[in-house]
Design brief:
Helices cover 64% and strands 12% of the residues. With 604 residues, the chain is α/β, with parallel strands linked by helices. The protein has three domains: 158 residues; 192 residues, 3-Layer(aba) Sandwich (Rossmann fold), CATH 3.40.50.2300; 159 residues, Heat Shock Protein 90, CATH 3.30.565. The protein starts with a helix and ends with a helix.
Length: 604
C-alpha cells in the first residue's frame, strides 16, 4: 500500500516544479514584450530622425522619384506606428508571454526593415560621402533595434533580417572595387550586432530570472509568515481555551483551601493544607503569566510614569524571595544605595525584578543571587546577578522568547511555562528601558535594567494615607456565578469573613434578589461569563442603575483573549483573573471598600 503512494508523490512533486518553471518562463517572456513595447516610442523617434537625415543626404545624389517613393512608404509606416502607440489597444503581455507573437508589431517591423534594406537599391548614392552616410543610417537602425528589441529575439530578427537581404544584390549590381571595403564592413556589422544581441538577451534573461526568483522567494516568505501567524493564533486560541477550562476548578480549589485554613486543624493537617496552597500558588503563577502575555498581546498595558522610591519594592521582593532562597540553601543579598528614586511605573518595575529574581533562583544550584541597585549619573541601574551555569551564547537571543526554557530546566526543578523573561523584556520595551544580559559559562549571569533617575519623590496623597485593613464583617455581598462549585466556595469564604451573602446562579436570579432588597448591597462580586448572551459587566451596570449608585464591584473572569482584556481595561470595575486565591479576594474587597470610603470623604 505504501509503495504506490510514494511513487505517486515522487511523480507529482517534479510536475509541480515543472509547472512553476513554465510559469516563470511565461512571466519572463511577458516582461520581454513589455520592455519592447515600452521601447517602441524610442524606436519610432530614432527612425523618424534617421530617415529624415538620409532623405536630405540622398536628395541630390540619388533618383528623386526613388527617394520620394521610399520616403512616402517610410512616412506611412511611421505614422501607423505613431497611431498604434497613441490609439491602438495595448497588447496583453501575459498572452504574449505564452504565445510569443504580436502581429501588429511584427508587421510594422518587417515593413520598416524591408524599406531600410530597399534603401540599398533605391538610395545608395554614387558619392562616397553619401555612401558613408547611408551605412551609418543602416548601422544605426540595427543598433536601435538591438536596444529596443534585443530582449525578444523574434522581434529583433524581424526588424533586421529584411535589411540584410538586399545587401548581396546591391554588391552584385555595383561591383565597385573602390567601395568594396565599405560594403564588406556593412556585411560584417550585422554579425557583430547579432553577437551583441545574444549577449544582451542572455543578460536580460539572467536579470529577469533573478527578479522573479526574488518575487517567488518573497511570496514563499509571506506564505510562511501567514502560516506562522495562523499557528500563533491557533496556539493563542488553544491556550485561551485550555487556560479558561483549567481556571474554573483551580478557582474553586483556591477558595476552598482559603476557607479550610480558617478552621481549627491539627498540625499535620495544617501542614498538608499549606502544601496544597503552595501547589495552588504555583498554578496561579502560571495562569498569571499567561494572562500577562494576553494583556501584552492586546496592548492594553500602558505605563504610569511617576517618581517612585525603589526601597519599598526591594523590601517586598526581599521578603518574598528570602524563604525561596533558604529552601534551596542559597544566599540572597540585596545591595542598594539609600534614597534611590526613578521615573517609572512601580508595578511594571516590580514585575520585571520579580521575574528576574525568580529566574535566577530557579537556575542557580550553588552559591546565591544578588540584587544590586546603584545610581550612575542620571540613571539608576538594577542588576540581578546569579552564580548559576550561565547562558550559552547560542541561547542568549532565544531565552527572551515566549515558552523558551533552558536545557537544564528539568534538572533545576523550576516550574512555569518559560514566560518570565519574555514578560520582563516586553515590559521593559513598554517602559522604553533596556533589559541587558551578561553571562559567562559556569560563572553565572547578570540581568540588568537602566531607568532614568528622579531628583525627588512626589508621592500621591492616596499613597500617603495609611490604609488600615477594612473590616468585611457585616457587609451585604451579592455573589453571582453560574458555576455551582465556585458559588458554594465563594459563599463559604465570605461567610467565614463575617459577610452576609446573597448567592445567584445567573443574571435573572440576581435581579430577582435585587428587587427584594430593602437596601443596596455593600459589594457586588460577579463572574464575567454568565451565559451565551449575558455577562457580569452588563449585570453590574444594571444593578448600579437600579440603585442609582456606583456600587463597589469585583468582576472575576477566566477570559484572557485580547478583545476581552481590552474591554476589562476600559471598564470601571476591578477585575480579578481566575484562579484567584482567598487572600486575593479578601484584599480586593478591602480595596473596594477603602476606595468607597475615600470617595465619601471627598464628597463630604
Amino acid at each position: 500500500m505504501n509503495a504506490p503512494f510514494q511513487h505517486d508523490q515522487a511523480l507529482r512533486f517534479p510536475a509541480g516544479e515543472t509547472r512553476a518553471s513554465d510559469r516563470r518562463r511565461e512571466l519572463i517572456e511577458s516582461e520581454r514584450y513589455r520592455y519592447a513595447w515600452d521601447s517602441f516610442p524610442l524606436f519610432i523617434a530614432a527612425l523618424c530622425g534617421g530617415s529624415a537625415l538620409e532623405i536630405a543626404a540622398s536628395w541630390k545624389t540619388s533618383d528623386s522619384a526613388a527617394v520620394l517613393v521610399w520616403g512616402g512608404f517610410i512616412t506611412g509606416w511611421i505614422l501607423w506606428g505613431i497611431w498604434l502607440l497613441s490609439y491602438g489597444r495595448k497588447p496583453d503581455f501575459e498572452a504574449l508571454g505564452r504565445a510569443g507573437r504580436d502581429p501588429r508589431m511584427q508587421t510594422l517591423l518587417i515593413a520598416v526593415g524591408t524599406l531600410v534594406g530597399a534603401g540599398w537599391l533605391a538610395l545608395f548614392p554614387e558619392s562616397e560621402s553619401n555612401s558613408v552616410s547611408f551605412v551609418f543610417f543602416h548601422t544605426g537602425y540595427m543598433v536601435i533595434s538591438l536596444l529596443c528589441f534585443g530582449g525578444v529575439q523574434r522581434l529583433f530578427l524581424l526588424a533586421i533580417l529584411p535589411t540584410l537581404v538586399p545587401i548581396p544584390l546591391a554588391l552584385l549590381l555595383t561591383l565597385d572595387t573602390v567601395r568594396l571595403p565599405l560594403q564588406v564592413a556593412v556585411v560584417l556589422t550585422p554579425g557583430i550586432i547579432l553577437a551583441f544581441q545574444l549577449r544582451f538577451r542572455a543578460m536580460a534573461s539572467e536579470l529577469l530570472e533573478l527578479r522573479f526568483r526574488n518575487v517567488d522567494l518573497l511570496e514563499d516568505l509571506q506564505r510562511q509568515r501567514d502560516a506562522a501567524e495562523s499557528a500563533n493564533l491557533a496556539k493563542s486560541t488553544f491556550l485561551a481555551t485550555a487556560s479558561h477550562d483549567l481556571r474554573q476548578p483551580m478557582h474553586s480549589l483556591n477558595l476552598y483551601l482559603a476557607s479550610t485554613a480558617a478552621y481549627p486543624l491539627s498540625e499535620d493537617l495544617r501542614e498538608m493544607v499549606q502544601r496544597m496552597q503552595q501547589c495552588a500558588r504555583y498554578m496561579n503563577e502560571m495562569f498569571d503569566s499567561l494572562l500577562d502575555i494576553a494583556r501584552l498581546d492586546a496592548q492594553v498595558i500602558a505605563p504610569r510614569l511617576e517618581a517612585l522610591s525603589l526601597q519599598p519594592i526591594l523590601l517586598r521582593l526581599q521578603s518574598e524571595f528570602t524563604p525561596v532562597a533558604s529552601a534551596k540553601a542559597l544566599s540572597l543579598e540585596f545591595v542598594s544605595e539609600p534614597h534611590l528614586y526613578v521615573m517609572s511605573d512601580a508595578g511594571m518595575v516590580e514585575r520585571i525584578l520579580r521575574n528576574l529574581l525568580a529566574n535566577a533562583l530557579s537556575y542557580t544550584r550553588l552559591g546565591g543571587v544578588q540584587l544590586v541597585a546603584k545610581r550612575r549619573g542620571n540613571r539608576v541601574r538594577v542588576a540581578v546577578i546569579d552564580s548559576g551555569p550561565g547562558v550559552p551564547r547560542a541561547l542568549r537571543g532565544l531565552i527572551f522568547e515566549e515558552f523558551a526554557r533552558a536545557p537544564e530546566d528539568n534538572q533545576s526543578g523550576s516550574r512555569g511555562f518559560g514566560l518570565g523573561l519574555a514578560i520582563a523584556r516586553r515590559l521593559a520595551q513598554i517602559l522604553r528601558i533596556r533589559l541587558r544580559l551578561r553571562s559567562s559559562a559556569f560563572r553565572g549571569s547578570s540581568f540588568s535594567i537602566n531607568m532614568p533617575a528622579a531628583p525627588f519623590a512626589q508621592f500621591r496623597l492616596e499613597d500617603r494615607v495609611e490604609r488600615s485593613a477594612a473590616s468585611l464583617s457585616g457587609l451585604l455581598v451579592l455573589v453571582v456565578d453560574d458555576d455551582l462549585e465556585v458559588l458554594t466556595a465563594m459563599t463559604l469564604l465570605l461567610t467565614l469573613q463575617g459577610c452576609r451573602v446573597l448567592a445567584a446562579g445567573n443574571s435573572q436570579e440576581a435581579l430577582q434578589q435585587v428587587e427584594r432588597m430593602r437596601e443596596p448591597p455593600s459589594l457586588l462580586i460577579c463572574d464575567f461569563a454568565l451565559g451565551p448572551a449575558d455577562n457580569g459587566l452588563e449585570l453590574i451596570e444594571r444593578i448600579r442603575d437600579e440603585f442609582n449608585e456606583d456600587l463597589p464591584s469585583l468582576l472575576i473572569t477566566g477570559d484572557t483573549s485580547p478583545a476581552q482584556v481590552q474591554l476589562f481595561a476600559r471598564s470601571n470595575v476591578e477585575v480579578l483573573h481566575k484562579p484567584v486565591d482567598g487572600d486575593a479576594v479578601v484584599q480586593a474587597m478591602q480595596r473596594a471598600m477603602h476606595r468607597r470610603g475615600l470617595h465619601k470623604e471627598l464628597a463630604s
